[in-house]
Amino acid sequence: MRAVVPSAAALSEAEASPTATAALAQQVDSVAAARPASVARLSSLPAWRADIRGLGFRYDADEAYALRDIDLTLATGRQVAVVGESGAGKSTLIRLLLKLRDYEEGSVTLQGRELAMMTAEAGRSQFAVVSQQVQLFNATVADNLRLGRPDAPMEVLREAARIAMLEPVIDKLPQGYDTIIGEWGARLSGGERQRLALARALVLDAPALLFDEPGTGLDPLTELAFGEKLRPLLAGKAALWVTHRLAGLETMDEILVLQDGRVCERGTHAELIRTRGAYYRMWRLQQQEAWARVLA
Ligand SMILES: Nc1ncnc2c1ncn2[C@@H]1O[C@H](COP(=O)(O)OP(=O)(O)OP(=O)(O)O)[C@@H](O)[C@H]1O
Ligand SMILES: [Mg+2]
Among 141, 169, 186, 204, which is disulfide-ready with 148 (CB 3.0 to 4.6 Å)? Predict the structure, then answer.
């Protein structure tokens, strides 16, 4: 691939100007069209896929299934969201993928290999998790970004920070990447933590990214901008977004709606809106809530 894409560098420049929204939108379009060289540089991995078939799990033999009959394909360049109300089974799915629990029904294959037969380490190396529960330790920002890949060169850290929109945050620190995180870690906002988690995940260079409740702690507008700028840059990864917030899912290749552990609807945002079912009702409700916040 030729390095024709200004990508993240241009995005952050455009971002610096408050009047550059239209320019930014254009940049995002061109980045999306050209497929980003920046992520390709971070990821030298070949195409990857995971096939989840008839997946079922109970926390206890005498309890109801927390997940049942789940079919889902994750693949490089594919963006999938799993949504549903509290208790629907979203986190359970992530726990199974990360081998924090063993599934009892169905199969999960990563590149054709059954996850249950893989070591926890081998299974987990396929996924980078982006959540707000990012663990920070008292070392430099650079070392914190290198967790999981200690030999990552500085160039990779910078590229990851740019894509994750963490650079403006790091630039404000007294010693930039060499600043000891210390108290600064405690002062990070939810959104900043998430950016740090994302940057770390990009440095890790796993083929798949799991976004665990990416919206929480961000206001709806920031959340939207974050998602829209980010997604075109993720063409080189498989991505699974697990969330109960429906804002910004318009660009997903597929959305699964979970209810009591089962898929009750699936499709793109437009399809699910047309269906006027559970997704549509959740979406309407959340839109009304968002307006109520804006008008308050
Ligand atoms: N450790 C556990 N032991 C027993 N049951 C559990 C456990 N964790 C979750 N459950 C149950 O499994 C079901 C699915 O929970 P899960 O955490 O996957 O929901 P979720 O969709 O992530 O919800 P939320 O949006 O609140 O995070 C729920 O009924 C929950 O009570
Ligand atoms: Mg959860």
Answer: 204
**39 assigned to some structural domain:** no
**Which residues sit opposite 209 in a β-bridge?**
128, 239
**Least confident stretch, 17-21, 63-67, 145-149:** 17-21
Tell me if 157 sits within 8 A of 149, measured CB to CB: no
In ligand 1, which atom is closest to the CA atom of 258? 21
Q: Tens digits of per-residue pLDDT, 245-258?
A: 888 788 899 999 99
Find the angle CA(278)-CA(280)-CA(283) to the nearest 5 degrees.
110
Q: What range does the domain containing 185 cover?
A: 138-205
Q: Provide residues with CB under 6 Å of ligand 1.
A: 59, 66, 84, 86-92, 244
Q: What is the pTM of this model?
A: 0.79
200-223 confidence digits (pLDDT tens): 988 988 999 998 876 655 565 666
Asked if 257 contacts 265 with a C-beta cutoff of 8 angstroms, the reply is yes
72 and 201 in a single domain? The answer is no
Ligand 2 center to 163 CA (angstroms): 26
Do 223 and 198 lie in one domain? The reply is no
CA 293–ligand 2 middle distance (angstroms) = 24
- Which of 161, 190, 205 is a domain's end point? 205
**Ligand 1, atom 30: nearest CA belongs to which residue?**
87
- Name the most confidently modeled range: 127-131, 215-219, 270-274: 270-274
Choose which residue among 85, 86, 101, 245 to substitute to test ligand 1 binding: the one with the highest number of ligand atoms within 8 A of its C-beta.
86
Tell which one of 59, 70, 211, 263 to mutate to probe ligand 1, the residue whose CB is within 8 A of the most ligand atoms: 59
Strand, helix or coil for residue 22: helix
Number of structural domains in the chain = 3
Determine the Cα–Cα distance for residues 210 and 193; give it in Å rounded to an integer.
Answer: 15
Q: Are 113 and 211 found together in one domain?
A: yes
Asked if residue 137 lies in contact with residue 145, where contact means CB atoms within 8 angstroms, the answer is no
Whether 101 and 233 share a structural domain: yes
